[in-house]
Amino acid sequence: MLPYSILKRISPKTRYLVRYKHSPEHWKWDSIRKGLLGKRKYVAVINNYGDSEETMSNLEHMGAINMRTLFNLEKGYIQEELEKNKRKEDFIPESSHYRLYDNESQSGFKVEKEYDLHFPENLNIYCYEGDSESDFDSPKRGSTGVFNYYLMDGGSTLPVLALGLKPGHKVLDMCASPGGKSLLAIQTLYPDCVVSNDVSNSRLNRIQNVFDQFLYDFDEKWLKKERVKLTNIDGRCIMEDNFDRILVDVPCTTDRHSLHENDNNIFKPSRIKERLQLPELQRELLFHALKLVKKGGVVVYSTCSLSPIQNDGVVHMALRQIWEETNIEIVIKDLTPALIQSRSVFELADKKLLKFGHLVLPCLSQNYGPTYFCKLQKIN
Ligand code: SAM
């Protein structure tokens, strides 16, 4: 870490990046920096409420690949490597449970490894191969009047996949605007009810716009529009409970966006108080979600930041608060073995550098993220 005498002479934004450069991930910094400053990549989430078959065949014709196919290919390679008994320890660790000790609270956090990332059969996400320069065209309206696909940062798909959605689930997207991840959850065609919440009224309108542009009330089809509810509450005050899955995609320093956009940048001096209070707000949102979720249910915490404080730091603070103030029992899900199947699509940070979650790192060839996500299950 650079001495504070030097740090204080540079702008908050540069200071933040310099701090990151001197963090344990710094050996990848040059590649991350090039990625962050380079052209970000998108994936196309096929809209099941539009002309999905035709859209998929057009995209395949253009050279795009279904992410499920890439995940399945990797699963096949993993199987082969296992059969040859090579790199066995990467895929089958000696134990699927371990405990992380917390010196300050004397508590221990139970961790369970997960070996499979379920890719819902109706979810189709298209991407271009690593080094491809190809881009998706803007989405177009089809015969039902809705857009044929939704473009999003590929990294944003992993927190939703990590939720492990199943048919009939009641889902809360606590900080939902503009609604990309809610839409992705809906496109699995699994949930029975999706509540998309955001504290900002103007940003709630953005979710409504997205839903109007992408959802369509079929008579016979899956999730009816009325089963998608929009609410405008501070996530920390939501009273409705009984959720099977909660996504807590918190407000954060939005690192890639902050580098490119000056308007209302979170690093500008007038927003310093807000920026410094972010981890506290993030902890409160996650703590509340862990209380709201059903017994046996799952909470996924996510950010689009590289900041260790906003990522593992917040998870650590929320877990400690749960341990100190409630009788709730939480298990941290270590998705490392499951995420091996995503290795041809995403550049993930070495798990040894993260305590609780996983981090998609930007780089020129797989220029998604940053996306941090951590899966937590309420046992009791
Ligand atoms: N999940 C969204 C998506 O994938 O499209 C992006 C969410 S964005 C990172 C964070 C959102 O949190 C913002 O829309 C912001 O208005 C909202 N927010 C900030 N504070 C909140 C709070 N206390 N409760 C609920 N939402 C909040």
From TrEMBL:
PROSITE patterns tied to this protein: SAM_MT_RSMB_NOP (PS51686)
GO MF annotation, one: RNA binding
Catalysed conversion reaction: a cytidine in rRNA + S-adenosyl-L-methionine = a 5-methylcytidine in rRNA + S-adenosyl-L-homocysteine + H(+)
Any one Gene Ontology cellular component term annotated for this protein: mitochondrial large ribosomal subunit
Chain residues that bind S-adenosyl-L-methionine: D198, D249
InterPro entries per record: MeTrfase_RsmB-F_NOP2_cat (IPR049560), MeTrfase_RsmB-F_NOP2_dom (IPR001678), RCMT (IPR023267), SAM-dependent_MTases_sf (IPR029063)
Primary localization class, coarse: mitochondrion
A matching Pfam family: Methyltr_RsmB-F
Subcellular location: Mitochondrion
GO biological process, one term: rRNA methylation
Boundaries of every SAM-dependent MTase RsmB/NOP-type domain copy: 74-379
Keywords noted in UniProt: Methyltransferase, Mitochondrion, RNA-binding, rRNA processing, S-adenosyl-L-methionine, Transferase, Transit peptide
Active site: C304
Family membership: Belongs to the class I-like SAM-binding methyltransferase superfamily. RsmB/NOP family.
Protein name (record): NOL1/NOP2/Sun domain family member 4
Organism of origin: Rhamnusium bicolor
